[in-house]
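TOPIC: backbone geometry
CONTENTS: sequence, structure tokens:
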Amino acid sequence: MPNPKKIPQSLIIAIVQSQDSDLVELVLNQEEYKFTRLPSVGGFLKECSVTFLIGCADSQRENVKEILMTAAKKRVTFVSAPSEIGPLPIPIPTETLVGGVSMLTLGIEHFEEI
């Protein structure tokens, strides 16, 4: 029978940029959180990202959130946005903010380790 204190009560789904994923994984391992790492692709910029599925107790959610916010930094990048000036659209580099973490938290009603 598993230790009741080790049974996860929450599932955190965290999506981070691939540049930050190794650091997130390292810190989660150091803090001994159970997680699964899945490759994914971002929406609007089509950037590679990583989705982490992290199981934790309700009391540890804030600690996981702090870990994710510290390890997954926001950064400025440039994307080509077409300009509507003139007869032909000309791509103009536009500054945009990317990175950080997108996080969803779900309650776990049942957990079974097989």
